[in-house]
């Protein structure tokens, strides 16, 4: 998943507007954090529409629990921001941009990772997306953490030589491994994921350890797709695949490698950039679902 979730307040009668705001993870059914209403108002101002909106769809990272979504929907409506409000995950609104109501598989790899699929019979399922403590394989965070572990092992004499330590020290602005350990103690998930481009640059320069790290990440993401294709099958027609997230967007560090991995299974990703804000806007134009208040 992206390092900063995209908030996509959208009105059914106006073009979509996207606004990036502070991260809002919803582990329990609590009212929305103060930045969220401000983000909605700012997006409406940028879009040139007045409040309350006809319909509002918000895609939030961490909004996977129904109780959390319902609580935020209620609070937003009580604030008079919209006549109808739907809160869903950032993955759900992105998936809608990719496939609308049809079948397909969306693979996201940014700071985190997840594969989300919808079968031809309408069943939906996921692989991954369990957070950086127990999941997020193949993500920027996983790549950064793997790099840190390998440089520590090399310092012990337990792993082969790599130039990653020097590159990482330069990137984070510390002098030695001991200082790097102190840096990691305070580093955020995004900080660790920010090491992924350093690994990619080292791999491009021929560093064997960096290449192994990226290859492992590609294997994990390939496994995400193959697993969800199996659980969502059987397929009467070859499913469409969409790649998204910082690592998989066009020009991303893993894009070409993942494309090659999927090509071995006769899978070709769609050749366009995902737009979660447009997915939210399209959802705002679809009344009558159970999630509408």
Features:
293 residues; alpha/beta; four-stranded mixed sheet; two-stranded antiparallel sheet; 11 helices; 8 strands; 12% strand
Overview of the molecule:
There is one protein chain. This protein is 44% helix and 12% strand. The chain is built from eleven helices and eight strands. It has a four-stranded mixed sheet with strand order 7-6-5-8, sandwiched between helices. A two-stranded antiparallel ribbon has the order 1-2. The longest helix has 25 residues, at 208-232. It has helices at 35-47, 66-78, 90-99, 140-156, 164-172, 177-186, 189-193, 196-204, 208-232, 255-263, 276-284; strands spanning 6-7, 19-20, 56-60, 85-89, 104-109, 113-118, 124-128, 241-244. With 293 residues, the protein is of the alpha/beta class. β6 and β7 (124-128) form a beta hairpin. The protein has a domain at 6-95 and 277-284.
Strand order of the largest sheet: 7-6-5-8
- Helix-and-strand structural type: alpha/beta
* Count of DSSP strands: 8
In percent terms, what proportion of residues is strand? 5-15%
Largest sheet: 4 strands, mixed
* Tally of separate helices: 11
């Amino acid at each position: 998943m992206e390092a900063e979730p995209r908030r996509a307040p959208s009105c059914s009668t106006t073009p979509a507007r996207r606004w990036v705001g502070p991260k809002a993870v919803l582990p329990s059914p609590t009212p929305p954090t103060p930045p969220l209403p401000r983000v909605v108002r700012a997006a409406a101002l940028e879009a040139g529409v007045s409040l309350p909106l006809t319909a509002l769809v918000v895609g939030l990272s961490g909004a996977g629990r129904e109780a959390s979504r319902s609580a935020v929907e209620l609070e937003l409506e009580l604030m008079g921001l919209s006549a109808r409000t739907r809160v869903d995950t950032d993955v759900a609104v992105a998936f809608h941009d990719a496939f609308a109501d049809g079948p397909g598989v969306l693979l996201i790899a940014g700071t985190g990772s997840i594969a989300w699929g919808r079968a031809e019979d309408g069943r939906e399922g996921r692989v991954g997306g369990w957070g950086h403590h127990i999941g997020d394989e193949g993500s920027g965070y996983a790549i950064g953490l793997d790099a840190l572990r390998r440089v520590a092992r090399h310092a012990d004499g337990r792993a082969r030589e790599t130039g990653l330590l020097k590159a990482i020290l330069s990137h984070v602005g510390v002098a030695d491994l001991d200082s790097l350990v102190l840096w990691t103690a305070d580093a955020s998930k995004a900080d660790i994921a920010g090491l992924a481009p350093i690994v990619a640059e080292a791999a491009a320069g021929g560093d064997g350890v960096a290449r192994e790290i990226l290859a492992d990440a590609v294997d994990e993401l390939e496994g995400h797709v193959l697993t969800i294709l199996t659980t969502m099958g059987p397929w009467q027609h070859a499913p469409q695949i969409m790649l998204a997230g910082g690592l998989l967007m066009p020009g991303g560090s893993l894009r070409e490698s993942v494309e090659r991995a999927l090509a071995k299974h006769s899978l070709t990703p769609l050749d366009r950039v995902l737009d979660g804000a447009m997915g939210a806007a399209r959802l705002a134009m679809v009344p009558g679902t159970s999630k509408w208040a």
